[in-house]
Specification:
74% of the residues lie in helices and 0% in strands. The protein has helices at 3-14, 18-40, 43-60, 70-88, 102-108, 118-136, 140-151, 156-163, 167-189. The chain is globular. Mean pLDDT is 82; it is low at 90-114.
């Protein structure tokens, strides 16, 4: 979405235009859900957080100050809700991926481009499961920047805006995350 389209959409949202909100929802629903799932490791919590994100966007859009892009604002709301989810439960590390249901795996099969070959689909799901499990082992700050950079393909500047920290801090956490991720993957391969 370019800046002009985004500005028009924001104005329509502020005016209470329901079709504009539907457009925003359609534009960001997968991104929000996947980001929440990547941070929580829990399908149901990701769904609940996603719903809450859009409730907060709807209720808070009139206060949107254009200090960042709409995408950055939505990602920041998602991140804060994921952090709150863990604070409420006094959990300092994210939930184990082993708690995910079969429904969760089936829900993601469309994301990995499962072909007509069932064996290839099983192989792809297994790779995805290993990647998610490895990402979940990263410390929280490293996981957040790793997910935003490599799974959500955000720029360092956008990540810094979402996290409310300097770009140098993002780069440092990303560097550590990549090193830790590589180490964890080597352990799995052995």
């Amino acid at each position: 979405m370019d800046i002009k389209d985004e500005s028009i959409l924001i104005e329509k949202l502020k005016d209470g235009d329901h079709s504009a909100f539907h457009r925003l929802f359609e534009e960001y629903k997968k991104m929000v859900f996947h980001y929440a799932h990547d941070l929580t490791g829990n399908f149901q919590e990701a769904e609940d957080i996603s719903q809450e994100v859009f409730v907060r966007v709807y209720n808070g859009i009139k206060g949107f100050r254009h200090e960042s892009s709409l995408k950055t604002w939505v990602m920041k709301i998602t991140l804060n809700l994921c952090r709150n989810y863990h604070r409420r439960r006094k959990i300092f590390s994210f939930l184990s991926l082993s708690q995910e249901s079969q429904e969760d795996e089936d829900e993601y099969s469309f994301e990995i481009g499962v072909q007509d070959d069932p064996a290839e689909g099983i192989y792809q799901r297994q790779k995805l499961r290993i990647l998610r499990k490895t990402i979940m082992k990263l410390p929280r700050k490293q996981r957040e920047v790793f997910v935003m950079k490599h799974l959500k393909e955000m720029k360092i500047k956008e990540i810094a805006e979402v996290l409310g920290c300097p770009e140098g801090t993002v780069k440092a956490n990303l560097f550590k995350a990549i090193k830790n991720f590589q180490t964890l993957m080597k352990e799995i391969e052995q």
